[in-house]
Design brief:
With 70 residues, the protein is of the alpha+beta class. The protein is 49% helix and 17% strand. The longest helix has 22 residues, at 2-23.
């Protein structure tokens, strides 16, 4: 079972590393789809996540915010 799951993971990981990750630019990573979006803030060369305001609805996320969580 473990071997099968690892083989299935190889396909999306190969697609991500060969096609998607190299195409990402800083502009795409930090693009916010709305005013209610959370992303990343860069400080001293390190990325820090922006956290959503608990009183608002669920926020949209940037590609950078999603990748930071991976």
């Amino acid at each position: 079972m473990r071997k099968t799951l690892l083989q299935q993971l190889e396909i999306p990981w190969m697609l991500a590393t060969e096609y998607y990750f190299p195409a990402l630019t800083d502009e795409l990573i930090h693009w916010k789809p709305s005013s209610n979006a959370v992303g990343l803030t860069m400080r001293d060369g390190a990325a820090f996540p922006e956290w959503p305001d608990e009183q608002n609805q669920l926020p949209d996320t940037t590609a950078g915010w999603l990748l930071w969580h991976m």
